[in-house]
Amino acid sequence: MDHKILQATRELIEEAGYPALTVDQVAARAGVGKAAIYRRYASKAEMAFVATVRGQWPPPLTDTGSLQGDLLALVRAFHARMATPAARQVAPALISELAVNLELDKRFQDTFLAAEHTCLADIIERAMVRGELAGPVDPALAHLLLLGSLAAGLYIINLPVDETMITDLAAATTAGLVAMAGRRHSDPEGAAQPR
Q: pLDDT by residue (tens digit) across 16-40?
């Protein structure tokens, strides 16, 4: 049933766009009742986001051998998923709903964002083991620098994000994380204080 709902959602978005999508249409196309949809998704935006963006996210990423390589692989995968025409319609709608629906926001934090933080925690741990980072860095901060910046570029600033920008974003995030880990490692007490 889940597959039918998500497939119907994708098809309807491709045919008429997200604004025209209704839960009634998805239910009819999938051959299920609306109640079955609402048991799974709190809103049209959440259903559309899962159908068009979330899927198998984050993707399984191999160790590239460097912090910058790992961050570049992640941001490329994020861009490929988030820059599609469907995602450009759905993600802003979901962001709007997250601001007013606390239950949906908690579910989004506990699933989609938690998976991204786990992925970044793994990347940070590998970089520490390789000696690229002098100490730990908060995965939420790495997320904000890398994926948050890309999301802002795609959905708020509406930048034409290309491979050069993606590469520069990975390099800038790497430099920032290395500097932050080094500062915290050399001055663990002072690092928490504003300068």
A: 888 899 999 999 999 999 999 999 9
User: Do both 86 and 160 map to the same domain?
Assistant: yes
Q: CB–CB of 43/18 below 8 Å?
A: no
**Any idea how long the chain is?**
195
d(CA 9, CA 147): 25
How far is 185 from 192, CA to CA, in rounded Å? 11
* Residue 44 in tokens: 């049209």
32 and 128 both lie in a single domain: no
Environment class of 157 (CB within 10 Å of its CB; exposed 0-12, middle 13-18, buried 19+): exposed
Residue 174 is classified by DSSP as H
Mean pLDDT of 39-45: 88
Residues in contact with 29: Cβ distance below 8 Å, sequence separation at least 6, in sequence order: 8, 11, 12
| Helix/strand/coil for 162 | coil
Note the pTM of the prediction, 2 decimals: 0.81
Backbone φ and ψ for 172, nearest 5 degrees, come out as: -65, -40
Range of the domain at 166: 54-192
Which DSSP letter does residue 50 get? I
What share of the chain in percent tops pLDDT 70? 93
